[in-house]
Amino acid sequence: MGNETRVLAVRPFVPSKTSMHIRRRSKSCAKPKRRKRCSKVTSCRLCATLMRLAKKPLEHQQYRTPSVKAKDLQRSPCKAHAAIVAKCQAIVGDYDGWTIKLEKAGLQRTVQVGPNDVYGFRLAMLPSSRHSTNPQYCGRRVHAKWIDMDTVRNWRTICDRNHPECRHRSVADHVRSPSEGPALLIDTKLMCICEATSKQVYLALSYVWGGSTQLKLSTTNLSDLMRERSLSKPQYSTKIPRTIRDAIGLVQALGERYLWVDALCIVQDDEVHTRVQLQAMASIYGNATLTIVAAQGCSADHGLHGIPGVSKPRSFHQEFFGTASGRTFVHCPDLWAPHSHWIRRGWTHQESLFSVRKLMFVGNSIEWQCHYAIFREDIKDEDVKIPIAEQRIHGFRQERSQQCLLHPRLPDFEALESVINQYLSRDFTYPMDVLPAFAGLEFVLSKVFDGGFLFGMPEMCFDAALLWAVRRTNYEPRDDGDTASTLTVPSWSWMGWTGIDGFAWYDAFDHIKWALEGYWSSVRTLPLVEWYSGSGLTSKPRVILNHWRKYAGIGSRNLPPGWTAHKHTPIKIKGKYVVENTHRQPKHFYTHESDPKMEFWYPLPLVDPDLASQPNPHDPPSPFISCSTNRAFMTLGERFKPHRSFPSVVNVSVHDNSGTWAGSLHINSMEDIALGPARTNDDPPATPCELAAISTGWAYNDSHEGLMEWSHPDRPREGEKYEWYNVMWIQWHGEVARRKGIGRICKEVWEAQELERIHLVLN
Description:
Protein name: Heterokaryon incompatibility protein-domain-containing protein
Structural class: alpha+beta
Pfam families: HET (PF06985)
Strand content: 15-25%
Organism: Podospora aff. communis PSN243
Number of strands: 37
InterPro entries: HET
């Protein structure tokens, strides 16, 4: 069926004439028998609508009912739904004019009840008998203290039977090689560490270390821990945190034998071994038959509560609601915990991303999550196959950004940006851990993005990647704190800063066909310099490929292998948008044989995954990049009016030494500039700045762009194009410079300056 909304022909609840007559007589005569009669209501429109929606099948169709005024519900003779009304009242607080609405969204088993679309709660109808097979009665009573292990086994059986994509571990298929995968595993039968083989079926654990003191594998205890029953010896068993002990017991309860846990399966003091295993995270978690996620607690000592015969009991309480028909509904609360330490930790991000099947311990309950299902204890399982991206569940879900991992040939810059934005929301005990924690993701994406990555920056579009901008200013450079790592994270990468809230490569999407339809941007970024990895001061630098626009304007002939050109017919209206500059749209768009549904304005250079070069784990990447370019000295002027959506972002005008308006600059930190809230547009320029040109760009003057200076009265508007140089505000520390901001300087103003040629080395 389609995705259109179907509105049920359900009238808002209005007291019937009979009930109104009963109340009037009750008020005048005050007869007890009349009051008793009105309390025995067997039919209620709210309860009946709830029942009707609950009986709708699991489908794409969406069902909604008109809102009902709370006062009408409170005057209703039906007392069965009083608890539902009271729960809605608790949501809105003291507000009197609220209403209640019911909705059954597409692919939802439950009915959403609440005062609006955002705040509400989900109800599932309980069966009259626990043996009922009617799918309408999808609610389930759950034991408050103990998990039903048969339920977990059934989830796995359903997935094995109905989801071959999950069983075949599709996420990691294109990144496997003989050298990847876990080196060591925990043998839960012999209770020791063992060498891993490619044929072993194992589970993986994703958890937070926290501040707990725990047993860690090292070069000194490795040989001892590989002896049978060594993990059962008091000298070691007492140092194993509760979460790991419970995970070992869970593996045994599920009838499996092997478990991978980072603390006990990576030799922590072997730098080379650790780097190799961190790069193999995609294979380790992607090829685990199941990942156990300990999403509760702030440390490894919390445990996995509720496993019979293994761990401490849990405390899971259910809330039940009656209806006029006598049917009972159970509240199915959102298990998502936005303040969970697990969901905030940087190390767990890629663990969740790579895991094909997850058993989540969250909200004192458990939840199964795979590519085609989300199973909960309080909702009956169904043998259905629903892509998880289509399930409107406010719980832990497979990240939208995982799509970039599922295309072994086509790089997806939008998805990469989404991955990084999720990553930026995570915390690290040591800020410098950002690099090793991202290593597994870089390793995977290097098989898709030609040239690989350098500190989280794709080399194939390096000039555009350097233009990253954020939605909040006053982010700070990372320092190494107490970490033993000697590797610095550079200022030119998003990895080099903390406190970043949202991030975008605004200029890296012009190859995607939708970029010229709907809200169209004409902004283009073009290479200016040749970038090198390495300073050239102490070692020979390596050329950074930076060739993402190699096939731009190629036409329909001499296409790279696998690409097909299609004639493009411009459209003037896309949905609710009027498409601008249709006469400037390309004559062709392109598709690749690996995914014909994805359309591009020009072919992209692709990498053969079998031939992809990988970083040598013995050689950490250089934090230095270098080029030959021009620099100019200018000054900062007035601050642009903050955007209402991003009030903390600081963008300022730039003036040359004669006072001429030159362009705009996005500032890393307010501490770097002598600007205050009292400054106005009439104030003279203030802070001096050294700017280095790193690329060029342009946009059509008759388009509507989101550039910070687009509406500035001094921006040049003559001619077809507004042209500029992309510049980086730099500050030197000896022979090496660091980023302080990024911006644009008008082409004619920049070329009128006394430019100086320099060898720029950035860290």
